[in-house]
Amino acid sequence: MKRPFIDKSWWNNMSANFAGAFLGIVVTFGTTAVIDMHARKSMARRAELIAIAHIDNDIMQLEAICEEMQETDSLYRFVYERHPDRLAEISRDTIDLLLSSMILPQLLLSNQSAEKAFSNSMETWHDFNDLNLLYSINTCFSLKNTISDLYETVAAYHTEACDSTFEQFERQKKRDDKPTALVRVHLDNPATKAYLRIHRMHTLLLPELTALLKEENNANKEKTGNHRQRTPKALPGHIRRRGRRGRQ
Fold it and tell me: What gap in Å lies between CA 233 and CA 228, rounded to an integer?
């Protein structure tokens, strides 16, 4: 008895088409997943570099502030050594320098956008290869904010000393309009002495903290292989800028 003829070509064609479609779906979704993973890793890498460069820029500003604080401390020491009887020995340039230090505000302008973008991006954190680096960058941001808060404390004492000096100067019945007269009121002001105590303490503390921040951030650059790349020049974030002049 003969077996009935069965045409299996349709099955073979359907199987081939199904296999082709299935492989196409796998390749498409697999390729998309790989591309997406690469993009996320690349985004995490850029976030690392941007954060480190941002901290590096803040460090340059903080170093400039520390240097200026040391100059201000030396200036006040120089003037106080001649107060009250020998102020006439001080040159007009030095008197003007002290008045500028007294009048100009002490402000630190910092762009927080990079820090907020880095700290609030939980999705980016999941794509970091080095969790120790992630922790270290966040530690740098925290230390930088601590230094900024300490500097703002000094600035608050400075503002109080300046405001109260002018109030006392305006209340004088026989007011001497010579610059040295305002300097005398300023140096005798208890608020000025309180400001200088805080200023001198932070003049010693802030450079140490800034050096620690720089050391930590340099280690981060080493981890990313970015230690040879030059960071952008610091933007003008610190308003107070005084030229260096000799004292007489």
Answer: 15
